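Researcher: Hi, I'm a grad student and pretty new to this. My advisor asked me to get structures for two proteins we've been looking at. I'm not sure of the right format, so I'll just paste the first sequence and hope you can take it from there.
Model: That works fine. Here's the first sequence with its C-alpha coordinates right after it:
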Amino acid sequence: MKTFIADNPDAKVAIDQLQYAQSWFATYNTVAVRKALEDEVQAVLSGKKLPAEALKAAQIKADEVMRPYVEQTALRLPQ
Protein backbone atom coordinates (compact mmCIF):
# COMPACT_ATOMS: atom_id res chain seq x y z
CA MET A 1 0.00 0.00 0.00
CA LYS A 2 2.87 2.38 0.80
CA THR A 3 4.32 1.83 -2.65
CA PHE A 4 0.94 2.37 -4.27
CA ILE A 5 0.40 5.65 -2.36
CA ALA A 6 3.91 6.80 -3.22
CA ASP A 7 3.17 6.15 -6.89
CA ASN A 8 -0.40 7.53 -6.69
CA PRO A 9 -0.50 10.27 -4.04
CA ASP A 10 -4.05 11.30 -5.00
CA ALA A 11 -5.28 7.92 -3.76
CA LYS A 12 -4.33 8.89 -0.21
CA VAL A 13 -7.22 11.38 -0.17
CA ALA A 14 -9.74 8.53 0.07
CA ILE A 15 -7.82 6.93 2.92
CA ASP A 16 -7.58 10.23 4.78
CA GLN A 17 -11.34 10.77 4.44
CA LEU A 18 -12.25 7.45 6.06
CA GLN A 19 -12.01 9.01 9.53
CA TYR A 20 -14.95 11.24 8.59
CA ALA A 21 -17.07 8.50 7.01
CA GLN A 22 -20.53 7.86 8.42
CA SER A 23 -22.92 5.00 7.97
CA TRP A 24 -25.70 5.55 5.47
CA PHE A 25 -29.12 4.18 4.76
CA ALA A 26 -28.78 1.07 2.65
CA THR A 27 -31.22 -1.77 2.18
CA TYR A 28 -32.71 -3.97 -0.49
CA ASN A 29 -34.07 -1.66 -3.20
CA THR A 30 -32.82 1.41 -1.34
CA VAL A 31 -34.11 3.91 -3.89
CA ALA A 32 -37.72 2.75 -3.69
CA VAL A 33 -37.68 2.52 0.11
CA ARG A 34 -36.11 5.96 0.42
CA LYS A 35 -38.64 7.42 -2.04
CA ALA A 36 -41.51 6.02 0.02
CA LEU A 37 -40.16 7.80 3.07
CA GLU A 38 -39.34 11.04 1.22
CA ASP A 39 -42.79 11.18 -0.38
CA GLU A 40 -44.42 10.90 3.02
CA VAL A 41 -42.13 13.52 4.56
CA GLN A 42 -43.14 15.83 1.73
CA ALA A 43 -46.81 15.12 2.44
CA VAL A 44 -46.27 16.21 6.05
CA LEU A 45 -44.31 19.33 5.06
CA SER A 46 -47.03 20.34 2.59
CA GLY A 47 -49.74 19.84 5.19
CA LYS A 48 -51.42 16.97 3.37
CA LYS A 49 -50.82 14.42 6.15
CA LEU A 50 -50.15 14.30 9.84
CA PRO A 51 -46.76 12.83 10.83
CA ALA A 52 -48.20 9.64 12.34
CA GLU A 53 -50.33 9.03 9.24
CA ALA A 54 -47.36 9.62 6.92
CA LEU A 55 -45.09 7.38 8.95
CA LYS A 56 -47.62 4.57 8.81
CA ALA A 57 -48.01 4.99 5.03
CA ALA A 58 -44.23 5.02 4.53
CA GLN A 59 -43.90 1.81 6.54
CA ILE A 60 -46.63 0.11 4.51
CA LYS A 61 -44.96 1.11 1.23
CA ALA A 62 -41.49 0.08 2.47
CA ASP A 63 -42.91 -3.29 3.55
CA GLU A 64 -44.37 -3.76 0.06
CA VAL A 65 -41.05 -2.93 -1.57
CA MET A 66 -39.14 -5.20 0.82
CA ARG A 67 -41.57 -8.14 0.59
CA PRO A 68 -39.68 -10.02 -2.20
CA TYR A 69 -36.45 -9.80 -0.23
CA VAL A 70 -38.10 -10.91 3.00
CA GLU A 71 -39.85 -13.79 1.28
CA GLN A 72 -36.58 -14.98 -0.27
CA THR A 73 -34.35 -14.60 2.77
CA ALA A 74 -36.33 -14.64 6.01
CA LEU A 75 -36.98 -17.74 8.02
CA ARG A 76 -40.54 -18.86 7.84
CA LEU A 77 -41.93 -18.71 11.36
CA PRO A 78 -45.02 -20.67 12.34
CA GLN A 79 -48.16 -18.53 12.50
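Researcher: Oh nice, that was easy. Here's the second one.
Model: And its structure:
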Amino acid sequence: MKKSRLAGIVAGGLLLGSGAAWAHHSFSAEFDAEKPVTLTGIVTKVEWTNPHVWFYINVKDEESGDVANWGAEMGPPHGLQRRGWRRDSLKIGEEVTVEGFLARNGSNRLNARAVTLTATGGRPGETLDANSSRRGSD
Protein backbone atom coordinates (compact mmCIF):
# COMPACT_ATOMS: atom_id res chain seq x y z
CA MET A 1 0.00 0.00 0.00
CA LYS A 2 2.78 2.42 0.89
CA LYS A 3 4.59 1.76 -2.42
CA SER A 4 1.51 2.44 -4.51
CA ARG A 5 0.78 5.67 -2.62
CA LEU A 6 4.37 6.82 -3.11
CA ALA A 7 4.20 5.94 -6.82
CA GLY A 8 1.00 7.99 -7.14
CA ILE A 9 2.60 10.99 -5.47
CA VAL A 10 5.68 10.76 -7.70
CA ALA A 11 3.55 10.40 -10.86
CA GLY A 12 1.40 13.37 -9.84
CA GLY A 13 4.49 15.51 -9.25
CA LEU A 14 5.88 14.59 -12.65
CA LEU A 15 2.63 15.56 -14.35
CA LEU A 16 2.50 18.92 -12.55
CA GLY A 17 6.13 19.64 -13.40
CA SER A 18 5.65 18.77 -17.05
CA GLY A 19 2.71 21.18 -17.27
CA ALA A 20 4.92 24.08 -16.22
CA ALA A 21 7.57 23.11 -18.75
CA TRP A 22 4.97 22.77 -21.50
CA ALA A 23 3.61 26.27 -20.79
CA HIS A 24 7.02 27.82 -21.41
CA HIS A 25 8.08 28.29 -25.02
CA SER A 26 11.27 28.52 -27.00
CA PHE A 27 12.15 31.75 -28.77
CA SER A 28 11.75 30.27 -32.26
CA ALA A 29 8.28 28.91 -31.50
CA GLU A 30 6.89 32.41 -31.01
CA PHE A 31 9.35 34.96 -32.45
CA ASP A 32 11.25 35.33 -35.74
CA ALA A 33 15.01 36.00 -35.56
CA GLU A 34 14.87 37.07 -39.22
CA LYS A 35 12.55 39.99 -38.38
CA PRO A 36 14.41 42.47 -36.16
CA VAL A 37 12.56 45.64 -35.17
CA THR A 38 13.23 48.84 -33.25
CA LEU A 39 10.25 50.69 -31.77
CA THR A 40 9.98 53.86 -29.73
CA GLY A 41 6.93 54.49 -27.62
CA ILE A 42 5.36 55.44 -24.32
CA VAL A 43 5.18 52.82 -21.55
CA THR A 44 1.56 51.99 -20.70
CA LYS A 45 1.91 48.88 -18.53
CA VAL A 46 4.60 46.75 -16.86
CA GLU A 47 4.01 43.15 -15.67
CA TRP A 48 6.93 42.04 -13.49
CA THR A 49 5.98 38.33 -13.23
CA ASN A 50 7.39 34.88 -13.94
CA PRO A 51 8.25 33.33 -16.30
CA HIS A 52 8.79 36.58 -18.27
CA VAL A 53 8.53 40.28 -17.59
CA TRP A 54 6.30 42.03 -20.13
CA PHE A 55 5.88 45.71 -20.80
CA TYR A 56 3.59 47.52 -23.20
CA ILE A 57 4.19 50.70 -25.19
CA ASN A 58 2.04 52.92 -27.37
CA VAL A 59 3.79 53.38 -30.71
CA LYS A 60 2.71 56.08 -33.15
CA ASP A 61 2.88 55.25 -36.86
CA GLU A 62 4.75 58.14 -38.50
CA GLU A 63 2.83 57.87 -41.78
CA SER A 64 -0.76 57.41 -40.61
CA GLY A 65 -0.56 58.91 -37.14
CA ASP A 66 -2.32 55.84 -35.72
CA VAL A 67 -1.23 54.61 -32.29
CA ALA A 68 -0.86 50.88 -31.61
CA ASN A 69 -0.11 49.18 -28.30
CA TRP A 70 2.80 46.72 -28.47
CA GLY A 71 3.74 44.06 -25.95
CA ALA A 72 7.43 43.33 -25.36
CA GLU A 73 8.57 40.13 -23.70
CA MET A 74 11.77 40.25 -21.67
CA GLY A 75 13.54 37.60 -19.62
CA PRO A 76 12.61 36.39 -16.14
CA PRO A 77 12.71 38.84 -13.22
CA HIS A 78 15.82 37.31 -11.59
CA GLY A 79 17.76 37.47 -14.87
CA LEU A 80 16.81 41.10 -15.42
CA GLN A 81 17.84 42.03 -11.88
CA ARG A 82 21.29 40.54 -12.52
CA ARG A 83 21.53 42.83 -15.57
CA GLY A 84 20.74 46.00 -13.61
CA TRP A 85 16.95 46.13 -13.87
CA ARG A 86 14.71 47.11 -10.98
CA ARG A 87 10.93 46.90 -10.73
CA ASP A 88 10.80 50.66 -11.23
CA SER A 89 13.25 50.85 -14.17
CA LEU A 90 10.32 51.34 -16.57
CA LYS A 91 7.81 53.99 -15.59
CA ILE A 92 4.31 54.47 -16.96
CA GLY A 93 4.33 57.49 -19.28
CA GLU A 94 8.07 57.28 -20.01
CA GLU A 95 9.34 57.07 -23.58
CA VAL A 96 11.61 54.10 -24.35
CA THR A 97 13.19 52.55 -27.41
CA VAL A 98 13.12 48.76 -27.63
CA GLU A 99 15.10 46.54 -30.01
CA GLY A 100 13.90 43.02 -30.56
CA PHE A 101 12.30 40.47 -32.86
CA LEU A 102 8.72 40.38 -34.15
CA ALA A 103 6.15 37.71 -33.29
CA ARG A 104 5.70 35.02 -35.92
CA ASN A 105 1.90 35.38 -35.88
CA GLY A 106 1.97 39.05 -36.96
CA SER A 107 0.57 40.38 -33.68
CA ASN A 108 1.87 43.54 -32.00
CA ARG A 109 4.33 41.60 -29.86
CA LEU A 110 8.08 41.30 -29.81
CA ASN A 111 10.85 39.61 -27.89
CA ALA A 112 12.95 42.45 -26.49
CA ARG A 113 16.73 42.33 -26.79
CA ALA A 114 17.58 45.79 -25.40
CA VAL A 115 15.66 48.72 -23.96
CA THR A 116 16.97 52.28 -23.97
CA LEU A 117 15.58 54.64 -21.34
CA THR A 118 14.97 58.26 -22.37
CA ALA A 119 16.41 61.39 -20.82
CA THR A 120 13.33 61.66 -18.60
CA GLY A 121 13.97 58.30 -16.94
CA GLY A 122 15.84 57.57 -13.75
CA ARG A 123 19.00 56.65 -15.69
CA PRO A 124 18.85 58.82 -18.83
CA GLY A 125 19.97 57.27 -22.09
CA GLU A 126 20.98 53.99 -20.47
CA THR A 127 20.45 50.83 -22.53
CA LEU A 128 19.66 47.70 -20.54
CA ASP A 129 19.92 44.10 -21.74
CA ALA A 130 16.38 42.69 -21.81
CA ASN A 131 17.61 39.09 -21.30
CA SER A 132 15.99 37.88 -24.54
CA SER A 133 15.09 34.19 -24.74
CA ARG A 134 16.91 34.11 -28.11
CA ARG A 135 20.04 32.02 -27.71
CA GLY A 136 22.29 31.09 -30.61
CA SER A 137 20.25 29.80 -33.52
CA ASP A 138 17.12 29.22 -31.41
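Researcher: Is there anything I should tell my advisor about the second?
Model: You could mention this: The domain at 27-129 is CATH 2.40.50.140 (OB fold (Dihydrolipoamide Acetyltransferase, E2P)).
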